[in-house]
Every structure is written in C-alpha cells, then in structure tokens.
Amino acid sequence: MNIRDLFFKYQAQTSGNPLAIIIARASGHYIYDQNEKAYLDLISGISVSNLGHNHPLIKEAIKNQLDEHSYLMVYGELIQTPQVRLCQKLVELSNDDFNHVYLLTTGTEAVEAAMKLSKRYTGRNRIVSCKNAYHGSTQGALSLMSDEYFTQAYRPLIPEIEHISFNNLSDLQIITEDTACVICEVVQAEAGVQLPEMIWLSQLKTRCEQVGALLVFDEIQSGIGRSGEWFAYQKENIKPDVLLLGKALGASLPLSALMSSKKILSSFSNNPVLGHISTFAGHPLACAAALKGIEILEQMNFKLMVSGLAQIFINTFKEIPQVTFRQYGLLMSLEFENENKCKLIIEECIQNGILTDWFLFAPNCMRLAPPLTLTISEANEAAQKIKDIITNTK
Ligand code: PLP
C-alpha cells in the first residue's frame, strides 16, 4: 500500500475531504510534495510558522537544548532555564503590562486554563464570549463557541456561557457582576478577519472594569508578531487582564501561555493547590525554540516587514472588484460572493502552487496568513498570481 492509502486506512480523519497532499519536506516558505512540486505556504499552518519552515537557527536551538535536556518533569516543579527565560522574555515584550506567565502546550488548553482561572479568581461562574469565535476543541473551549452546528452533538457542555456580538455596543450589557470573564479575540480570525472597532474594545474594557469581570484576550492567532506588534492588544492600546498565546509562540513546536499578574495567576497555586497542571506544559525544547524565534523576530525588525508586506497585498487586492479584502497585519481575508466561488479559487491556488484555505465561520473567505519572513518578491508574485486566478476563474 502506498502512503496515501495507509493514511486513509490507519489515520483517523478530521473531515471527509482532507487536502491529502503527500508531503516530502518543507523548507523556508515552501512545502514540497513527493513529486517535488513546491507550494508557497501562505497560511503558515494556520498562523503557526511565522518564520517559515525548518529555520536553521530554530533547528540549532532545539538541538542545543536537546544536548542539555529534553522533558524532565511535570510543569512547575523543577527550575528549567528555557522556561524561566521565556517567561522573563514575554514579560519584557509586554513592557511589563503583565508580570507573570503560565506556560502550557496547546491553544485550547490555554483557553481552558483561562476559564478555570477566572472562575477561581472572581468566585463567579458565568463566562461571556463572542459569536463566531473559535477558541479550541476541548469541551470548555467548545462551550465558548456560538455555532450550534459544531456544538450540538456534544451537549451538555459547560453551562453559564453567554454570547455577545463582536463590535456590538449594546451587547456589553450582558456582562454583569456575575461574569467571571469575557474571552474574546482582538481581531476575529475565524470569522474571516473581522476588525475591532476602537470604541467597542475600549467600552468592553470599561464594562469589565465596572463589573469586576476579567478581560481575557485570545491572541493565539494574532500574537507573536502577526498583527505588526508583538501582541495585537498593544496595537489597540487596550490591556486585558489575561493574555493567551499559542500557535506561533513555539516557533513550530507545541507551546502556549497565559500572561497575567502574579496576583491573578497565583490563584492556581492555592486552595486548591495544583489548580491547573499538565505533564508536557512548557516543554523545554519548545521554550528553546520560542526564545530563538523571538530573537530572530527582534533582529529582523518584523514590525516594518509586516507593514511592508501587508501593503503589497493591499495594493494588489484593492483593484479586484469581485472581492472584499480585510487585513490586520499579516492576517488577511479575501471575501467572495459565495462559498463555492471561494472553494474554486482555493483549489486553483493550490493547483498553482499556493497553499491557502478558508475560515471556519466564513467559508466564503480565503485565508492569507503568510510567514512574516516572506520576501518582497515572493509577496508580489503570490499576490499577482492570486489576482490573476480570481480574474480568470469564472
Ligand atoms: N484560539 C484561537 C483564536 C485559535 O485560532 C485556535 C486554533 O485555531 C485556538 C484557540 C485553539 O488552539 P489549538 O488548536 O492549539 O488548541
């Protein structure tokens, strides 16, 4: 049996129609299939590979850490230098907006932990999240999702969750003195890159302060440079009580984090102790990769790179009458008249060596989230190719 047949025979599937491209290797901004066909990765594994694939310095950092030690012990017991240094570095990147960090492994686990932390810290049990947001697939994170199609098969989920509409000012009244926290993204990724209105974000913050609810920003997609700042909250100048990171944080290895104050995060360490524990949290190899990834971003002046690259896509796509283009740093969306058209364009892009896909709650929108290290000529060429495909596909 060939590897394709084995994939379908032995590996459990997440949908009836996976891309099923047989991958030979990946390097830089390209993924290569078994026939050496190159695909320009314009989605970075859904906002993960901010530095592209197989970055030599990341590989070196992982190897160096492997020579010292790999996994040792459940999170939080032993002092492991890469973990401590990463926590320190993240605090530094936040300009001391946060002074404490809890490392974990996946995005959904960070969301789960934030839900528990908010309940424990406030003594309340109601949580508010936004409609059309994706925060992960475990039962807690899934409970935050408003879309019945994805949730109804798994009920009962966690009770006392209320949904508000992103950017809707009157919905903020749903946040009350019973609310433990509001969990939302700064920019709604899976809704097809919905941009925040400044007035809404600032009133959301004010409302949370008024009623004593924690404000949790899920920056699992927008964090670590993709917004054009280290974190999107810095771009908006609205500081949450808890910041969630994942995806790009581990520079290709699994790693997530909660950033907050020592006061809030210490809720996990008493009454009950071990409020959240996890075997592989803050894996030393992932922390070493993360530290190197941040260093690389620092050295390449990523803020300038992100705005320069984004401008190329803006300039090219603003001229196409058939689409609506939205962009937040290098998190971008091309909206088509319907889902079929979008799928057709995505297929054409893949045929033409450009890897892209759609959004969970916006199947009529095509996702573009390229590595932040894309070159100007790669960006120009890819944008032009996509424009030609859109113009020529009837
Ligand atoms: N939050 C957001 C905004 C996400 O986009 C995702 C994943 O796509 C998650 C949370 C869940 O992260 P993970 O898949 O690592 O559990």
Percent strand equals: 15-25%
Which ligands are bound?
pyridoxal-5'-phosphate
State the strand order across the main sheet. 4-10-9-8-7-5-6
Mean pLDDT: 97
Structurally, the number of domains stands at 2
The CATH H-level homologous superfamily of the largest domain: Type I PLP-dependent aspartate aminotransferase-like (Major domain)
First-last Cα distance: 38 Å
The CATH architecture classification of the largest domain is 3-Layer(aba) Sandwich
What general form does the structure show? globular
Find the count of extended strands (DSSP E, 2+ residues). 15
Q: How can the largest sheet be summarized?
A: 7 strands, mixed
Which stretches of 5+ consecutive residues score pLDDT under 50? Answer: none
CATH topology label of the largest domain = Aspartate Aminotransferase, domain 2
The ordered H/E elements are: HEEEHHHEHEHHEEHEHEEHHHEEHEEEH
What oligomeric state do the depicted chains represent?
Answer: single chain
Describe this structure in words.
The protein is an alpha/beta fold. The chain has two domains: 3-54 and 301-392, Aspartate Aminotransferase, domain 1, CATH 3.90.1150.10; 57-299, Aspartate Aminotransferase, domain 2. The chain has helices at 3-10, 44-47, 56-68, 81-93, 107-122, 139-143, 148-151, 198-211, 232-236, 262-265, 284-299, 302-317, 339-351, 376-392; strands at 23-27, 30-33, 38-41, 100-104, 126-130, 161-164, 179-184, 214-218, 242-245, 256-260, 324-328, 331-335, 354-355, 357-359, 362-368. The strands form three sheets. It has a seven-stranded mixed sheet with strand order 4-10-9-8-7-5-6, sandwiched between helices. A four-stranded mixed sheet has the order 1-2-3-13. Strand 2 and strand 3 form a beta hairpin. Helix 3 runs antiparallel to helix 11 and helix 12 (302-317) runs parallel beside helix 14. The longest helix is centred in the last third of the chain and has 17 residues, at 376-392. The two termini are 38 Å apart. The relative contact order is 0.16. The model has no long low-confidence stretch (mean pLDDT 97). Bound molecules: pyridoxal-5'-phosphate (PLP). Residues 46, 106-108, 111, 134-136, 185, 189, 218, 220-221, 246 line the site of pyridoxal-5'-phosphate.
